[in-house]
Amino acid sequence: MNDIASALQYQPFRAVTAFSTGDYMNSVSTRLVMGLLASAALPLAVLPSMATAQEAGTRTYDIPAQPLENALVAWMRQSGVQVGYEPGDVAGRTSAAISGSKSSGEALAGLLAGTGLGYRTTGAGSVRLTPAPQGTGAGGTVLGPVRVQGAGAAAARGGVIETATGPVPGYRATLSATATRTDTAIRDVPQSIQIVPRTVIEDQSAVRLTDVIQNVSSVQLNGTAGNRAETYSIRGFVSARYAINGFPLTSGMDRPEAFFDLANVERVEVLKGPASVMVGLSEPGGIINIVTRAPSREFHFDGSFQGGSFDFYRGEMSVTGPLNASGTLTARATGAIQTNDGFRDGARPSERAFGAAALRWQPDSLTQVDLTADYVDQKVPFDRGLIADEDGNYVHNARTYYGERWSTTGAEKLVLGLAAQRQVNPWLMLRFTGRYTDALVTDHNAVDLQGLSDGMVRRRITNRTEDSQDLTMRFEALADAFTGPLEHRIMAGVEHNRGEFAFWSARANIAPIDMVAPVHGVTPVPVATVNNVYDFEARNWGFYLQDQIALGEHWKALAGLRYDRAKSHTWDHLAGDETPTKDDALTFRTGLVYQPSTSVSLYASYTQSFQPQQGQLVDGTPLDPEEGEQFEAGVKLDLLDRLSITAAAFQIKKRNVATEDLDNPDFSILTGEQRVRGLEIDVTGEILPGWNVIANASHLDAEITRDNTYAVGNRLNGVPRFSGRFWTSYGFSAGALSGLTLGGGIRVVGKREVDLENRFTIAGYETFDASIRYAFNQHWEVSVNAENLTDRFFVEAVQGDNNLYPGTPRRVMGTLRARY
Predict the structure, then answer these.
(1) 129 within domain boundaries
(2) Fewest CB within 10 angstroms: 131, 234, 407, 425, which?
(3) Where in the sequence is the signal peptide annotated (predicted)?
(4) Mean predicted confidence (pLDDT) in 480-493
(5) What is the SS3 assignment for 68?
(6) What is the tally of structural domains in the chain?
(7) CA-to-CA distance for 243 and 644, rounded, in angstroms?
């Protein structure tokens, strides 16, 4: 059994058994992107019948006679097929020896020879031993099935074994824990979920989380909170907080504290649609979950140095391996340092330092404990972007900066994590996970843009501190069960979150600056006057239950229920006011998947979300929380075991949107409703050996459907009707060009409304990117990436007429990378 521990990976909320290795159930530019997507998908979409399960292939097996339970583990690891059985059926039995080239079925039949057991297929890539479980009446439930899970496909780089939270072979991931917090095949999830693995991040030389997110349909940069951290719009709705390893960011904050560093990222996953059953308080568009890199039982080192335009320099490294001879204690250390003068004339340089450590203890195959820590320290220019006048005119020059060199925002953030899991018996796992965050954000003379007068930009400075602490704890149980012919994976859990946030700010007006030709150098800087001091405290409890059901070979179902109770208290120290709030909600999700073959999944789902909000009615009653719901249907294709296509149609409604009380303008009423209807397609994987692609396109009809303040039918601000990206790379593996990889792509974003009044639109754009990479050997490679080749000006994020964030001009980046 000890050899199995080497295959175990920490999977958030996963029913890891003593035998698990990580696989659960097996305009012109617009037309150009759509054409490229079609060229990637259609030639292969007509070939689903050619995509066969591993059962049809043969492999070389060498499994000696041994206790049957151990033999099944060896077969599972070599075949990549999962097997379920009752412990009593295999206890005390010995397998026959097998060797040679066989199909997985032939190999399993050989192992079972003389044991009195057979098997039957229960799904794509899964079997179950017979005889059937004993001790049930008609429709009764028996607890105790052991589910042995296959290791998945080998990676194109280095023979990586895929798990739900580990490295992904190539561009295409097939497993995820984000949607269910169990190690689940993406094709079995009745919701759209896209994954951008580290391979793509490195191939594109991404340096921002935004660079990564561009690879996912219906996700746009919403803003940066003055160049402090990213917020995103998902399916038309702003999601101010993302999650890290399944934990949303600090509950007391309405935006992240610092830019997220990519050095420790294994994969970035986006679950589309309401996700309150999984993460509690959230917006209805979806959730971004960042999965970090875990320790390995084998020594690995990777490091890189990057240099490029605008005096950008970055160095990063990560080293992992065992700390003792038995390999029960492993660790990973990761670090990065980055400096950048930036493309904004007159702004101070940016600096960031990042470090992360992870320690894993696996004393046996039933127990795993993980300790993690990461720290970031950044100092960057405070930057609200560009400003537009009432007619929608703004400077089309990305280098124009309306701040001052002394305008700075900084952040320090420490995150500590603990995860412990124990396989109590073959059918039950218990898990505890916890995370503590301590962050301090400091703005020093941050320049805000207050409007325009006679061509001059009115400005003010803000000195501000935001001190936050957050503690989240989860206790979860996961059980496997049978109800007659149905297989269940049942998850139950309780979650508690406590967040505290202390805010202080002082403001003063400063001299205006010319909109077209700004001249910097305000002196002396005026003394700011304190304008806001308050403390905020949040206490949230969540109780949830989820059931993943296998309804025979072709059908899968998912049902989840969650009750949240959220309390908050705000103390305004200047006004002497206290504002307590209390909300609770019951949210639900359900979905069904039909799989007529191993390559096709048809799905439909219904999901809900809930999000408390500040404010009150005229009678003093607090506002009810915003509520969201989504209907979604789609198809997922897995072609030739190397290319995945997801197409989805959906409708999301957000209700209880606070709008102005026309009779009492200082108060609100809950008459607002917003709706988004959309179509999406995402393509990921390998078209031919060495030819990789990741592409997407979406069409969003995002509008106001009920409101007192804004006209019904107005579009939601910052949401393009059409957007998409196509990226492809081809690596030569033989001949004179062996080791050379060429890549390139296009990104297209349509026009966007500047605000909910729809006063004017911000133009759309197209940008082109390219890369060339050469691997000298398996250890060293060099690459050059060019972004926005045509050096086009564009507005990347729209938060209002005085928060228009320009995109990066043409940038060239060189990278030297080492792997050992």
Answers:
(1) no
(2) 131
(3) none
(4) 90
(5) helix
(6) 2
(7) 25
